Each structure stands twice: as structure tokens, then as C-alpha cells.
Amino acid sequence: MPGPSITFLGGVHEIGGNKILVEDGPDRILFDFGPSFSDRWEQFYINFLQPRSVSPVKDLLEFDLLPRLDGLYSADALAGSDLPYKAPEVHGLFVSHAHLDHAGHLDLVDPEIPVYVAPGTKQLLDTIQTAGTQKYGDHDWRVVPDGTRVQIGHLEVEPVPVDHSIPSAYGFLIRTRQGTIAYTGDFRMHGPRAAQTHAFVEQAASEKPVALIMEGTRAGPDPRRNFSEAGVREGVDGLLEKSDRLALVSCYPRDIDRLTTLYHAAREAGREFVVPVKTAHLLTSMAPTLGPQVPTPGRSEGLRVYARSKKKTFKWERPFLDDAVDAAYVGRHGSEILLSLDLPHFAELIDVRPPRGSPFIHSMSEPFSEDDVDDQVLHNWLDHFGLAFHQYHASGHCAGPELAQVARQIGPGTVFPVHTEHPEEFAGYGPSSLPPVKGERYPLRS
Questions:
Q1: If I label 267, which of 26, 43, 137, 317 is the partner at 20 to 30 A Cα–Cα?
Q2: What is the pLDDT of residues 391-429, one digit of tens each?
Q3: Secondary structure (DSSP) of 243-283
Q4: What global pTM score does this model have?
Q5: In what helix (H) or strand (E) does residue 351 lie, and over which residues does it extend?
Q6: Which band of pLDDT confidence, cut at 50, 70 and 90, is reported for residue 256?
Q7: Are 20 and 94 in contact (CB under 8 A)?
Q8: How far is CA 174 from CA 156, 351, 438, in A?
Q9: Between 194-206 and 400-410, two packed helices, what is the crossing angle to 10 degrees?
Q10: Burial level of 208, CB count in 10 A (0-12/13-18/19+)?
Q11: What is the CB-side half-sphere exposure of residue 366 using CA atoms within 13 A?
Q12: Quick check: 371 pLDDT over 60?
């Protein structure tokens, strides 16, 4: 019977796209399954040029953007492909969290393969599907409460919560016949749930894992300040205190920690926090799972919903429209408002007409390159309306020194860096650091 092994089918020398196959004898399980954020994807697919819906696997295999793995894909997704359909040969798929680069290809997976998710992750995936174009497909969903261990043949998987920039993020302890594999998922040490990450690290260290699969988004050159969420709050507080104009902010739409921070900053400054309808839907959907600390429209004082002028409204939007505000309201009450506005909806600035010099808070990552197209477009709009740019963001990922600290504390036999463009930075993180080769099988040795 073959011994335990790891095969990296994605997330190698790239940001995102983790696809990690763990095998032990006849048992095969996969961790995460989403598209990469690498330049290679954008060499072939960008904006409206995307894989065809009638032949998605065929189109992605053409450019090696999906793994050629038997017994994984649905018959429909394989239409036209030279990869023949086979009954499932993967016995479970575990999703670490609901970001696109970890879950965005679930719609291609055979619906007979069980998909294991945390309760909060399942709620997020459902919410994203309802209010957007992203689809995850029909599956044998297995919702795994915290503290539950999942046995699949010789493999035992224990999801352990970690802190990240989206709720319900998990690392995993994967127990094989040759010892434990620790997989961090995406994680950080400086967020509001940092205690969860520390607990994961301590538990992983106690098992003396034979392998640590570790994300390294921020390994290598990283000029960003390592703000904490409290640091973001401090910066926004100071900015709002000095301004008597409308304030605007852009943040990641599913970063509920950031939305909560901005809500409290607005209330401290005596302002209403005005959010898009999609954000209102997200907060309302997630509040029962995440608890009363999540601000929600209709319950949290000073939280309002902004309704754009649209030709069509969807059913999920309608509960938020009766008490919504519009551009005219925001224009009249500008000094009393912090308006959340993302780049695709910047056309609202034409109606809102913010006073020149109004602060714009960019509460997202800095662009990765000087010629980032979206960043240039953003600044074109800010310059046109005379808005003052301010950067306040707490990353969802560990900084380089934090990665080294975690790897040394866990003390694995081998560190496998994934989700990074700089795996060479992991040299010296453990007794052995091994940048994986995509598609190569790595047997475990205790």
C-alpha cells in the first residue's frame, strides 16, 4: 500500500490558486480549489475574456490553469475536454475559507465529492452566490463545526480556526500513518482574532509535524506597513476628526472586520456609515453566525444603505431599499457621513459631487506594481474630483518576520511554501525548506 504523500497542484510560485492533494494508501483528499492571482492567468484571460461556460475545464487545461486530475471534475465541466470523465477518485475536498482563490473553482468539481466547510464559510458562500455572479455548484456539502475531526480512510483532518481578512478561516492538521501535516491556509498574527492563530500554531507545534504547508503571500520584498486592525482604526479616527467634509472609503467587500472598524470609527466621529446594498446583505446574512458585534442595517444605529439608480433590482436587494439613502442625501449631509464606495461604483461620484479636498480612504492592499491598471483608474477619478488619498489597511497575511517566527515555533520536518512568489525566502525556516514543484509527488517520512 503506498505511503502518505503530498502533491501540489496549484499555489506554486504564485499568489492564490492553492490545490493540495494529500494521499495515504487508497485515500485521496484535496485542500482548496480556486484560481490563481498570478500573471499567467492574465496572460490569457482578463476582463470579459474568460473561459467559456460550455467548456470551462477544456479552456483552462489548454493553458495549464487547472490540474489534469482524474476523478475530480463533473461530466458537465469536462464537456469537450480530452480528459475523460471518471467517477470520483477524490474522497473529500476541504475549503480553508471563502476567498475566490481558494473556492472559486468548486463549480467544476464532481457533485458526488463531499465538500467540507465550516458553518461560517458555508454561509458566506451562500451569501456570495445570492448577491453576485460567482457560482459554486451543487455538492454533497459537509458542514464541520469547530472541534470536529473528519476521518477519511487512513486520513484524519482537524480544521482549526485562524485569523484572516474574511470570517471563518481555517488551517488544518492532517494526520497520516507517517505523522501530521500542518496546513496554515491563509492567516495572520495581527488581526482581531490573532489568538486563534496563536492557538493553531501551539497545537501544530505540539504534534511535531513531519510537514508544514505554509502560505507566504508577503514573503520577500514588502514595502507595506504592518498595520493592525487597531492601527487602521487609529488612522481613520484621526482623519475623520480633522475633516469637516464628506469622507469616502474603499475596502474589500467581504472583510467584515474592516467594515466593523469603519462603522465604529464613523460613530465615534458622529457620522453615519453608509454602505452599498451588497454590503448590507452580507452583514445581515452573517450576523446570526458571527454574533451581535457585526453591525447590521435596521439594528445598528447610524448604519445606512446607499441605493444606486438602477434599471433593475433583485429580490435580495429589496429588503434594504425602503430606508435607503441616495446621492442627493449624501451630498446634503456630507460632513456627517462616511461613504463606502468601491471602484466599480465610482460613477456615483458624478452625482454625489464631493467637495474638493474630501478625504478618500483606501483600506485595501497597495497595488503590486507601479503600472497597476485599476490603481491608475482609481487615481484618475480621485484627481478629477480633487479627493485626498489616504492609505490605511491591515493585511490578511503575515509579514515575512512573522512567517519565520511561526515556522520556527512549529518546528516541522519540512516546510513547503505555497501561495507565494518568493519561496526562496523560506530557506532556514525549518530543518528543511523545500519549494515544491507543481505536480510532483512528495512522500512523507517521519
A1: 317
A2: 999 999 999 999 999 999 999 999 999 999 999 999 977
A3: --S-EEEEE-TT-HHHHHHHHHHHHHTT-EEEEEHHHHHHH
A4: 0.94
A5: helix 349-352
A6: very high
A7: no
A8: 6, 53, 20
A9: 30
A10: middle
A11: 14
A12: no
Q: What is the pLDDT of residue 370?
A: 39
Residue with cell string 495515504: 24
Question: What string of DSSP letters covers 40-99?
Answer: HHHHH-BTTB---TTSHHHHHHTTT-S---TT-B-TTTTTT-SS---S-----EE-S-S-
Positive or negative: CA dihedral 362, 165, 190, 409 = negative
Mean pLDDT on 278-305: 95
Instruction: Output the nine-digit C-alpha cell for 137.
Output: 455548484
3-state helix, strand, coil in the chain (%, to 5): 30, 25, 45
Q: Compute the average pLDDT of residues 223-242.
A: 90
Whole-angstrom distance, CA of residue 243 vs CA of residue 235:
13
CB distance 416 to 212 below 8 Å: yes
Closest CA to 201 of 231, 248, 167, 163: 163
Distance CA 176, CA 157 (A): 9
- In degrees and rounded to multiples of 5, residue 309 shows phi and psi of -75, 125
Torsion 140-100-90-6 (CA) sign: negative
Instruction: State mean pLDDT over 59-76.
Output: 96
Structural element, H or E, at residue 23: strand 19-24
Nearest residue to 191 (alpha-carbon basis) of 166, 216, 215, 172 = 166
DSSP reduced 3-state for 21: strand
Beta bridge partners of 66: none
Spatial distance between the Cα atoms of 252 and 264, rounded to a whole number of angstroms? 17
Pairwise CA distance, residues 108 & 71, whole Å: 12
Grid coordinates of 302? 447610524
The confidence score (pLDDT) of residue 368 equals: 45
All structural domains of the chain, each given as residue ranges with its CATH number in brackets, are 5-221+396-443 (3.60.15.10), 229-391 (3.40.50.10710)
**Residue 310, C-beta contacts closer than 8 angstroms, at least 6 positions apart:** none
Q: What pLDDT, on a 0 to 100 scale, did the predictor assign at position 366?
A: 65
Residue type, 223: P
Distances (CA, A) of 438 to 13, 62, 186: 9, 16, 19
Measured CA distances, 50 to 16, 110, 136, 226 (Å): 18, 21, 17, 35
Distance CA 415, CA 204 (A): 13
